[in-house]
């Protein structure tokens, strides 16, 4: 089994964000989590990553939990968080070398992987020698993605990986995710970019009102391709969308 989530519950003050969510993500899946703004996708991913402590519930990754195997679990996990925290005083290359050291990658192996990932994502090699503080949002995102994947984690969690990427970089990321997926790994992604989700997802989860309103294969979600993924999502969430709001004042 890849990821097993049992009864995850989280509130911020009086706001109940996640309510007893159960979910199993099997090895080999690329599970894409969808849902409206503020519904709790990042909170859910952060609970899985042990960055937020849930009020209740457990997370097991490859049959290990954080309580008894903290380091073991985290060594086998790669993450891009929504706010993509990097060390901005470092250059892109310094940062990736630092991450490689944290994961104790052998030097030659680290060099090779960093070279390959940076060549993959960056045309302009010079920028890799500049401080991250001066990078654009997309450049920072590419460094964050490279850092998440560098140690070949069995569990790869990417929160909004396509946001801020140009179409070329986004297409490269689609290819990378598709290549990365195999039967020994689990990929979990939160995204609003349905065009890209359609090309990478094996499974879809739709979070709404604290629960998974849909959890299943992408084939089932799109009725074997009869619906586009955005139509399927719209149909699922439309009854709760406020269509009554009058915006006629804009028209003239
Ligand atoms: N640290 C926090 N303190 C208080 N409330 C929080 C905190 N983090 C998140 N929230 C609230 O929890 C809810 C879920 O937020 P979250 O960022 O998980 O949503 P999301 O689905 O990822 O949203 P988006 O699609 O806009 O990124 C929101 O109402 C948010 O305001």
TrEMBL record:
Residues 3-234 form the ABC transporter domain. GO terms for molecular function: ATP binding. PROSITE patterns: ABC_TRANSPORTER_2. InterPro entries: AAA+_ATPase, ABC_transporter-like_ATP-bd, ABC_Transporter_VariousFunc, P-loop_NTPase. Keywords: ATP-binding, Nucleotide-binding, Transport. Pfam families: ABC_tran. The keyword Transport applies. This is ABC transporter ATP-binding protein. It comes from Pontibacter silvestris. The lineage of its organism: Bacteria, Pseudomonadati, Bacteroidota, Cytophagia, Cytophagales.
């Amino acid at each position: 089994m890849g990821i097993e989530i049992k009864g995850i519950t989280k509130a911020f003050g009086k706001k109940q964000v996640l309510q007893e969510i159960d979910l199993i993500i099997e090895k080999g899946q690329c599970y894409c989590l969808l849902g409206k703004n503020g519904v709790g996708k990042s909170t859910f991913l952060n609970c899985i990553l042990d960055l937020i402590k849930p009020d209740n519930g457990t997370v097991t990754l490859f049959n290990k939990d954080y309580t008894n195997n903290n380091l073991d679990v985290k060594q086998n996990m790669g993450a891009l968080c929504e706010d993509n925290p990097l060390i901005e005083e470092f250059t892109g290359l310094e940062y990736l070398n630092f991450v490689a050291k944290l994961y104790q990658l052998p030097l030659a192996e680290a060099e090779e992987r960093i070279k390959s990932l940076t060549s993959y994502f960056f045309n302009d090699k010079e920028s890799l020698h500049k401080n991250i503080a001066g990078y654009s949002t997309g450049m920072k995102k590419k460094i964050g993605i490279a850092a998440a994947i560098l140690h070949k984690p069995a569990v790869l969690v990417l929160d909004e990986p396509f946001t801020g990427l140009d179409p070329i970089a986004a297409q490269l990321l689609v290819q990378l995710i598709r290549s990365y997926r195999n039967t020994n790994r689990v990929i979990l992604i939160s995204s609003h970019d349905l065009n890209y989700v359609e090309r990478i997802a094996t499974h879809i989860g739709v979070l709404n009102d604290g629960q998974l309103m849909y959890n299943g294969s992408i084939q089932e979600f799109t009725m074997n391709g009869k619906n586009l993924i955005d139509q399927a999502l719209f149909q699922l969430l439309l009854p709760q969308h406020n269509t009554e709001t009058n915006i006629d004042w804009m028209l003239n």
